[in-house]
Write a structure and sequence with these properties.
By secondary structure, this protein is of the alpha+beta class. It contains twelve helices and 32 strands. A hairpin with a 6-residue loop joins strand 6 and strand 7.
Length: about 775
């Protein structure tokens, strides 16, 4: 194999030893559900409600809110207008690491224009606050009598629960964090952790069969009819019918992607092409998708006739014309396909849409997102660089988003998530982003990408805890940059070894992809539509998982042209072929007797295999077995990660990177585009030459028996007849032995000129002579 040079240490994977519950060495699984992250202690304050609050303003009412104060940290609930018995039910979480006070103060205040009045307060000594460890039940809140500043009893009571806990507490995701003290109440939802589910995607197959009794406006011409189908922002059309009558036929399939719940109907319009750029609608048909039949296998669904409607404008009003035109369709929601919404190389889910066809899971994937360090400043605030980082992890239909850690280049999340695994040949993607919507970010602001990590589950050993620090690498027009490192803990637990091993015999995609395959062009278009639907739906969630985040996680632009990627793929092919090249060089050394002892041993082995041909296959497979056992000692002990050398990211030319980041269509000046076009033409010219050479060699093989060169064909036919007679009367082992000894002959019996068969082959004609 061709060894590539190791990448820079700064871009390499590093094994870590975090203080987590799961034994990273032994792999022992503890009973705690949060054993892949470091425990973080928090002081929780649940403010439930108040009652009998006295009026403080002139009208005798009060506008109450609660202020929870611990040292320099202060959390505030929303206020109510003129309400003496308000309910907040809000949780505040203060990180124990940052607690510098010994007393927790809870104030109930009255919102006022000039200054807020104190209604009452409750004080708690931190040493007396109880601890709670899940799965204990939540601590029951209690009523506390409010006191004034002097410690005397005041009117009103406040219901509170105060306890010490960890990030495993169920109150943690929705609580206000002291880390985010500077965030306004309107932006708090943008920094919370959240679990999202991708919408359930279906393929819609519309088989347009025929139409009947169409009524074209111009009856003096033959109609050129086609059908246009629109579903949301997707629009497809059939070809123009070959039967140019009022009863046209198509029998053509149109494929769409749609997500549950079905929001928009399928709209079909039958149109007549009356001019070069003019189409005339002959009828419309709207079909709600919830009425469409769902298909789980390849058996055809029943076809149906649908009436076509036509609207005309009469005296400025839209009126419907009733007539007998109709269209024959076969429509179904395809449940037997997997709707591809991510790059096929990094798929995290391969199950069919219909849940009835799912196999049982084969294991559980647990991910602990511990921390990041060395993050780069992503934006400027008050004249200094800052980063508000959060993580997104995507596997299958489940997306998770950690909370945002404010203004910190070394954020610690310590959040753990779990996924069901149905196939080990899948990839989990973890991305790190900078939150650009905290401080009232403008509508055009985006969440900047810091980097991402992909981990293929099939590369992980079962029940082993992997704790590594992964480099976060981002490609910029100026080159590859390391924007920090993320520390993850990962464990794949296998529930059934037999089922997992049996999975390797199953096809990668559901059966329908092989029984009724979709074309490559169809799959590309449908994948793009599916990505758009997923990003649109997740961006409507609260807090939104923004479009730029979803597109980065799904590798939306992975199909775009890149000189750097093309070079990387070329050298990947060369790396694959390097094994064959090495074997060829070794065999050439054997034939040239570079090492006489090795050549003699190969002669002996060859003679044994010729005399006992039944040993050939056992010898080959035994050799492969021994190579595999030998390589086991050097098996990879770490998950794969982004490789800058493999990607040719560390040596890419600036102009190539600028081209990679160019928009489509291009936005660069004409002289740069001309230069790149000429460069692409020169590369395409070389590719064209190679393809032509391959075609020439193939055509020479065809011309052996085509009599294009009558003398060459005569020689070859005569040679075939003689060889057939020789092979008939000579045992095969003798032929094989003589051929092998001739190939392995000593250099003394060789000459440097090409062999006779090669000379003969190169003289054969090819069709290149007929090329213009």
């Amino acid at each position: 194999m061709m060894q590539k040079p190791p990448q820079a240490v700064d871009f390499a994977l590093k094994e870590t030893s975090p203080n987590i519950g799961a034994g990273a060495v032994t792999g022992d699984k503890l009973s705690s559900t949060y054993d892949l992250v470091e425990q973080m202690q928090y002081l929780y304050v649940r403010v439930v409600k108040a009652k009998d609050l006295p009026g403080k303003d002139v009208t005798g009412g009060c506008d109450p809110y609660v202020e929870v104060k611990l040292g320099n940290y202060k959390g505030i609930t929303k206020h109510f207008e003129k309400k003496s018995n308000p309910e907040w039910n809000q949780v505040f979480a203060f990180s124990k690491e940052r607690i510098q006070a010994s007393v927790l103060e809870v104030y109930v205040k009255d919102k006022d224009v000039v200054s807020d009045d104190l209604i009452g307060r409750a004080m708690f000594d931190l040493n007396e606050i109880p601890k709670r460890i899940p799965p204990d039940s939540p601590l029951a809140p209690q009523w506390y009598r409010l006191e004034d500043r002097k410690g005397n009893k005041a009117n009103g009571e406040l219901m509170l629960a105060v306890w010490m806990g960890t990030q495993a507490d169920e109150a943690f995701p929705d609580s206000w964090h002291s880390d985010a003290a500077s965030v306004g109440p309107d932006a708090v939802s943008n920094i919370r952790s959240k679990v999202y589910l991708s919408p359930k995607l279906w393929y819609v197959r519309v088989n347009v069969i025929e139409a009947q009794d169409l009524v074209p406006n111009d009856k003096s011409r033959f109609p050129e009819v086609f059908v246009k189908a629109v579903l949301g922002n997707q629009a497809l059309r059939t070809r123009v019918s070959q039967s140019k009558t009022i009863n046209p036929m198509w029998n053509e399939d149109l494929m769409f992607v749609v997500a549950e719940p079905f929001e928009e109907p399928l709209v079909l319009s039958v149109e007549d092409r009356v001019g070069s750029n003019k189409d005339e609608t002959l009828g419309l048909c709207m079909i709600p998708l919830h009425m469409v039949q769902r298909r789980l296998d390849h058996r055809p669904v029943n076809s149906r006739w649908f009436n076509l409607e036509k609207h005309v404008i009469v005296e400025g009003e839209k009126k419907e014309i009733k007539f007998a035109s109709r269209i024959h369709l076969r429509i179904c929601l395809e449940g037997g396909y997997h709707v591809l919404d991510e790059s096929t190389h990094y798929s995290s889910d391969l199950r069919p849409t219909a849940k009835q066809l799912w196999r049982p899971n084969i294991g559980i994937l647990e991910l602990g997102i511990l921390s990041a360090h060395g993050l780069m400043p992503m934006k400027t605030k008050d004249g200094r660089g800052t980063t508000d980082a959060y993580c997104v992890a995507k596997y299958g239909q489940k997306w998770v988003r950690t909370r945002t850690i404010m203004d910190n280049f070394m954020p610690r999340w310590n959040e753990q998530y779990t996924w069901e695994v149905f196939d080990t040949c899948t990839v989990i993607t973890v991305g790190v982003f900078d939150n650009g919507h905290i401080h009232g970010g403008a509508g055009g602001s985006k969440d900047s990408r810091i980097g991402k990590v992909r981990i293929r589950l099939s590369t992980l050993e079962a029940d082993r805890v992997y704790t590594h620090s992964y480099p976060l690498l981002v490609l910029h027009p100026s080159g590859v940059k390391k924007t920090g490192e993320i520390q993850l803990a990962l464990r794949f637990s296998c529930s059934s070894l037999i089922n997992m091993l049996h999975m390797y015999s199953h096809p990668l995609l559901p059966k329908m992809h092989y029984i009724h395959p979709l074309s490559v062009v169809q799959l590309d278009v449908l994948r793009h539509q599916a990505m758009q639907i997923v990003s649109m739906r997740l961006s409507r969630a609260e807090p939104p998982l923004r479009k730029e985040v979803v597109e980065y996680m799904l590798d939306v632009d992975s199909h775009m042209w890149s000189m750097r990627r093309s070079k990387a793929n070329f050298f990947r092919i060369m790396g694959v072929l390097s094994g064959l090249v090495a074997v060829g060089k070794w065999f050439d050394q054997i034939c040239n007797w570079r090492n006489s002892l090795t050549t003699i041993l190969i002669h002996i082995l060859f003679i044994i295999l010729v005399l006992y041909p039944e040993l050939i296959l056992p010898t080959v497979f035994l050799y492969l077995f021994l190579i595999g056992i030998w390589n086991y000692r050097w098996r990879p002990r770490h998950p794969p990660h982004m490789d800058t050398r493999l990607s040719h990211a560390d040596a890419a030319h600036p102009d190539e990177l600028d081209e990679e980041f160019d928009t489509f269509p291009t936005s660069r000046p004409s002289d740069i585009v001309r230069m790149r076009y000429d460069r692409l033409r020169s590369i395409a010219g070389r590719v064209q030459t190679v393809i032509g050479d391959l075609a020439t060699q193939g055509e020479r093989f065809q011309s052996l028996l085509s009599w294009r060169d009558p003398r060459a064909s005569t020689l070859f036919v005569t040679f075939c007849l003689i060889l057939a007679l020789v092979l008939y009367v000579t045992p095969f082992q003798v032929i094989a032995l003589l051929t092998g000894l001739y190939v392995l002959r000593h250099p003394r019996f060789r000459h440097k000129l090409p062999s006779i068969p090669l000379n003969f082959f190169r003289r054969l004609p090819a069709r290149s002579d007929s090329m213009l």
